[in-house]
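User: I'm curious whether this sequence folds into something compact or stays loose and floppy. Could you predict its structure so I can see for myself?
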Amino acid sequence: MASQIESHRASAEIVNGDAICRKKSIELLEELGLPKGLLPLEDIEEFGYNRDTGFMWMVQRKKKIEHTFKKIKQTVSYAGEVTASQC
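Assistant: Here's the prediction. I'll summarize afterward.
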């Protein structure tokens, strides 16, 4: 995954620190019409979004977290690095 991130860094908007990373990720989710709670990550170290390629990433301190979406009673896990790309 790191190599994927590295190849998108050049023209990406990158922020560091949990508070600003959470804010930017929620803004992006809203902009894309996705639910704000889709990425309930913890202790986010870095958020990056390359608008030119549609690639985004988030790096959290923990290697993996689990989260239960109560409304749908579904538990999911997120890796330490979460990446996504618009098709």
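Summary: Strands lie at 13-16, 44-50, 55-69, 74-85. The chain is about 25% helix and 45% strand.
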